[in-house]
Amino acid sequence: DRAYLLEALVLPQKSLAPGYGIMSITKKDGTVISGAMLKETPEDITLRLPTGEESVTKRSDIATKTDPVSAMPPMGAILTPRELRDLVQYLNTL
Hints:
Layout: H1 2-10, E1 21-27, E2 32-40, E3 44-48, E4 54-58, E5 62-65, E6 69-70, H2 81-93
Antiparallel strand pairs: 1-2, 1-5, 1-6, 2-3, 3-4
Helix pairs in contact: 1-2
């Protein structure tokens, strides 16, 4: 609905769809893997790497990880309220 679309535009970090949050994982052996988070389970995390390949890392192998971050900037800082309204209206028709 329109409220969801507006929230997604103004606060893109609040709720990220799978595949749209960028995260980095540092493994216990020092290897760093970065990519779009596709899936997170109690056992492992799956990232889509920049090459398009998928990388599955077992949680037991992870030393640290970042929270997923949206690559989209908050549109409220870029668009005027009127432009946001028009964009939400357009997106609602798709």
